[in-house]
Every structure is written in C-alpha cells, then in structure tokens.
Amino acid sequence: MVLEAFIVALLLGLPVGLALGLTGGGGSLLAVPLLMGVMGYAPDQAVPLSLLVVALSSALGSVWVLQARQVAVRPVLVFAAFGLATAPLGLQLGTWLPASLFVLVFGLLSLLVAALMWRQAGGAEVVPPRASAGLDTSAAVCRLRDDGQLRFTAPCAAVLALAGAATGLLTGVLGVGGGFVIVPMLVAVTQLGIHRAVASSLLIITVIGFGGAVSAAITGQLALEPMTVGFIAGGLGGMVGGRLLAPRLPGPWLQRGFAVAIGIVGVYMIWQRLNGGFA
Fold first, then answer.
1. d(CA 113, CA 251)
2. d(C-alpha 177, C-alpha 167), whole Å
3. Are 21 and 245 in contact (CB under 8 A)?
4. Among 35-44, 130-139, 177-186, 187-196, whose mean pLDDT is lowest?
5. What is the pTM of this model?
6. Cys-Cys crosslink for 9: which of 1, 23, 184, 227, Cβ 3.0 to 4.6 Å?
7. Is 150 helix (H, G, I), strand (E, B) or coil?
8. Helix, strand, or coil (residue 70)
9. CA 29 to chain centre
10. What dihedral angle (degrees, nearest 10) is formed by the CA atoms of 168, 118, 136, 193?
C-alpha cells in the first residue's frame, strides 16, 4: 500500500518538474492543486511542500544551466536576495488566509497566468524556441554591454530588487515559485532574452523556494512522509525530461500547451471553491 502511494505521488510530481524544465516556471501552479486535490493536503501544508518540490526540481535544473554558463549571475543575486527576504513574510501572511479564499485567489491567478501565456504565445510565432529574436527589449532598464554582460546600474538594481521582493511575497502566500513572473520580468528589464531568462529563473526559484521551505520547517509547517518523497522524486524526473525536450519543441507550442493546463487548473480550483471543496 505504501509502495502504491509512492508510485502515485511520483507520477503526480512528473508534470511539476516537466513544466519547470520546459518553461522555467509554473511548476507550483500544478503542484499546489495536486497536493490539495489528489493528495489531500490543506493549503498551509501544500504551500511549503510545493516550495520544497519546486526548489529541489529547480536546483537540478540550475546545475544544468550553470554548467552551460547560461545564468546571468548579478541579476539572479539581487532578485533572489530580496525574494528570499520576503518569502517567510509571505508564508506567515498565507497562514492567515481562510482556505476558501486561498482556493479562489489561486484559481483566479491561474486563469490570469493562462490568459497572459496564451496571448504571449500568439504573438511569438516567429520566435525560435528559447531565442530572443523578435522580442521588444527597447525599454529595458538593464542594458547589455557589447560583450553580452549586463551594464549593472542603480536603476537596474532597484527594479530587480522590487521584482524580487514581490515574487518572494507571492511565493510565500500561494506557494507558487514565481517563474511565470520572473521570466517575463527578466526579459523585459534586462534584455537577456528567453533562453538566459529561463536559465536564470531556475536559480532564482531554487533560492526563494528553499528559503521558504526552510522557514516553514522551522515553524513546523513542513512535514515529510513517503508520499511527499515520491512527489519530489517525480518532480526531479520531470525536470530532467523537460530540460531534454525544451530545445526540441517550438516555443509557442510550449506556451500554449502550458496555458491550457494552467487554465484547467484555474477552472478546477474555482469550481472547488463554488462547491465548497478544500474548505
């Protein structure tokens, strides 16, 4: 019976890691509903577990991209440091949310993210997978030098710090890693392009997610058991598969497919709320 539960949890964790590996974010938008709807966790249990699963999966992906030297280190350090500082506060705020309100907010956020991803994919038909061609970065605050490295200025650092702090709060409150926020933010303000933004996002999610998980463990919110270990293993396996598949799939296909999945999650969460589920 324990083995069966472990296998089920492992299979549930696969799409979480796969989403992270393919898109650089959004894994926790799948993790939290799966932990609540299928594995039966309450929101205050699902959030820290989601952070741990997503952080471990992202850490594996981070090793991958660091070896390939795809990470922009300075933006990552600023973004992650401020996210790490605010994630524990977000966790505390999240414990004050009634379960019914948590479910509703999570569902609405999922629908918003799905709509934005679908719209972005619709305008990206000419963009090769993981490339920056065709993206308008003329308004970027952090400009690239001729050697491809960032010209790190005070306005650049301030924008990254603000974005990091907001991402940390969101991560703590809803258990979402923030990759769906981090990637477009990095592309918009740093001129890094999709490929390096996704790579940098994985490292940022790792730092913020681990910070939130450690904070939850200290306060007693995080508990590990065989099913959660299986979920983590599935996430790691999905990450490996996602990183192998990403270069071979068209970018718009990835975004549209993931937008549909997240949209279904949003509808499911709102449906549960309207029918008194997860209360």
1. 16
2. 8
3. yes
4. 130-139
5. 0.77
6. 227
7. strand
8. coil
9. 7
10. 60
